[in-house]
Amino acid sequence: MTGKAPHLSLDLSKNEPAIELVGIDKKFGAVHANKNINLTVAKGSIHGIIGENGAGKSTLMSILYGFYQADQGEIRISGKPVTIRDSQAAIAAGIGMVHQHFMLVENFTVLENVMLGAEGGQLLRQGVSSARKELKRLEDDYGLDVDPDAVIEELPVGRQQRVEILKALYRGAEILILDEPTGVLTPAEADHLFKVLKVLRDQGKTIILITHKLREIMAITDTVSVMRRGEIVATRKTTETTVEELAELMVGRRVLLRVEKGDANPGKVLLSVKNLTVKDSRGVTMVDDVSFDVRAGEIVGIAGVAGNGQSELLEAIAGIRKPASGEILLDGKPTAGADPAELRELGLAHIPEDRHHMGLVLKFEEYENSILGYHRESRFGGAMLNLDEIRKQAEDQIEKYDIRPPNPRLKTANFSGGNQQKIVVAREIERNPDVLIIGQPTRGVDIGAIEFIHKRIIEMRDAGKAVLLVSVELDEIRSLSDRILVMFAGKVVGEQSGEANEQALGLMMAGIAA
Amino acid sequence: MDYFDIFISILGSAIRLSIPLLFTALAGLFSERAGIFDIGLEGKILASAFASACVAYWTGNAWAGLATGIATSIVFSLVHGFASITNRGNQIVSGVALNFVAAGLTIVLGSAWFGQGGRTGQVPASGRFSGITLPGAEMMRDVPIIGPLYANVISGNNILTYIAFLMVPISWWILYRTRFGLRVRAVGENPGAVDTAGISVAWLRYRALIVAGFLCGFAGTYLSIAQSAAFINNMSAGKGYIALAALIFAKWKPVPVMLACLLFGFLDAFANFMQGKALPGIGEVPVQIFQALPYILTCVLLAGFIGVARPPKAGGVPYTKER
């Protein structure tokens, strides 16, 4: 494939190229992270780079920003070859980067963050007033208003991201790279970001947007390149492509964006929640008198804007958070006072919302995580761990769930997000629980893995298990659930069938129609 | 002696006892604000105390002693940096190792060179920093209240004492008013932000450690050739750890660091004074209670009773570039 990577200059090249990558190649040991990358981005355009996790997008951008050196290849900025040895060289070449995890000092003010590294002299005093003036100008030119004296940690995430953009512009960036910029934003904040990006483009800045969200690519980019396994497999004008085509290019085969599933055959009630009230650590009521049942052989989805009590509901059912009042019944038996381990023995499995926080110990090797929570089972040896047995079952899971790379001895942190999630899903589903509760099953997971995880969830249903699903992705809820409950401000405000239309659900989630 | 005289004498002794703490805590302020845990402060004090005593003994020049003490302390800092910045080793392990090296090396070298079981020779008067009488101290002595305070507490200290207090505003100014200070504070919170701003994290942290070494050199020198006239085995006696406690107690801020050091110095002086004396209504209090107070106060603070002490976020974590 290497020689065939297309080097396309699209019609936009009537604008001169802002940045050209010629034959960029990078290997990490045996991993070929970037293979002969050729890419031209026209000045004053928004170029999307889309690909699954681990496709090499981030490596490519890190090379552009001087975090890594390419083994081979050339970078040209405005036609001139440049060597980018470190971030300082990237800044000097006019490249600014907005990282996925913000590179901000949280207890500094906006002004201090913007000035860091570009202070304008040994004494801070020398640079402060010019920095203020420049911030004001950027605000006027691009509509990026932020209070320069606000402390970062007190700003909402969308504002913090704006500071990142300001930092880049303050350093005179002409090319702005954004790495998964909407991962942490609310939909409204994301819309605002897109508006800002369009303004920046119209003022002549060049923007490279890295994402794995197809919708964003379609909404905002002018041109798009698809990366797969370290290569650019296609470059298209956004208006001349479709979501389906891009998705297929990303995974290299046709994906089902709709999950195929048969009708549900609900049986007896396996999970029952009665008048449940849960308070958070501050004593605020997060779940308010909620009741519902989940039957064998059905998937009940809980839709809602994040922060309306779904997390607390899941934690209460999983035995992590003690309810203030109400009852939870597993197969008709009350579970009050049972801890997560006892609940597991009663047949409840929990795929937590945040795999880093609750699902995995990132510093452990894969096989250690594959038994976490089930390590007491006698087949793993009890007090003295039976490592052979544990590794054998880890290898089984790796094969069955196509976890890559297939190495149980690899540190979990070194797996991509999608594969980490598969480790959790494999662990919980392979114990064959009667009741499965799942939070955000596919957050930060690439398309291939999403499809895989969705299929496993439906298999669980078809095997007669009760599944409770919480997700902020409405598409996911709608495509998987047999029944949908909508939560708003801690209450279940409505119930819909799986075929509910998006508008009706949206109104309920906003607390407008019940 | 009436109560006021007792108070004045305890206060004077409190100042003297808090100086090494102050230098050391300010040293720790720089390294820890840059994100390097500095448990090796203790070792740096000890090593610099030994080095400055040796040189002051041989040359009879206190300033030469000070210079050697500072240089020694900086070398220890650089070793810490080499282990924990360049090689990304564990900062606590590296610091503890330095403490052991200092404790062992001073005894071995001291015995070899002076043959007094680790003690150095008696430093001549010219090799010591002795008290300076400030102008007007004698004249003021008879003025009520202010007089004895000026003559016995403020005047009559050695030059290092005045330097120590001068270091407080200087440290504050460096940290909050200079580019270097901004970067040091940033690198202790989020080295990624510093790196992506095009600044070398390693070199910045090395510089912070050099500043720490510089300040710690004063602390050691003060112990051996200002407060006493020779180096004695293990003469730092845990001051490095108390300084760390003061640093935490002061929430990693320069002026509170000074106040915390003065408080801990005062507790120490008070403990000395109370030795063998009965407290009215309570009776004799074991001196260990007072000696434990700095640690107890710090624990109480850490438990959140006196506000939350928020350490620099990136403290203790070696920086590795991530994608």
CATH superfamily of the largest domain in chain A: P-loop containing nucleotide triphosphate hydrolases
Uncertain stretches of 5 or more adjacent residues of chain A: 1-13
Oligomer: heterodimer
Radius of gyration of chain A (Å): 25 Å
In the CATH scheme, what's the topology name of chain B?
A: ABC transporter involved in vitamin B12 uptake, BtuC
Which word captures the global form of chain A?
A: globular
What can you tell me about this protein's structure?
The complex is a heterodimer of chains A (514) and B (323). Chain A folds into 2 domains: 1-92 and 208-251, Rossmann fold (3-Layer(aba) Sandwich), CATH 3.40.50.300; 269-509, Rossmann fold, CATH 3.40.50. The longest helix of chain A has 19 residues, at 124-142. Chain A is built from 17 helices and 20 strands. With 514 residues, chain A is of the alpha/beta class. A 6-stranded mixed β-sheet of chain A has the order 6-7-8-3-9-10, with helices on both faces. In chain A, strands 16-17-18-13-19-20 form a 6-stranded mixed β-sheet, with helices on both faces. Residues 1-13 of chain A have low confidence and may be disordered. Chain B is mainly α and 323 residues long. In chain B, 69% of the residues lie in helices and 1% in strands. Chain B is built from 13 helices and 2 strands, in the order ααααααααααααββα. Chain B has a two-stranded antiparallel ribbon. The longest helix of chain B has 31 residues, at 3-33. The A-B interface holds A 58-59, 62, 65, 67-68, 86-91, 97, 99, 101, 103-108, 112-113, 115-119, 121-125, 167 and B 176-183, 185-186, 189-190, 192-199, 310, 313, 321, 323.
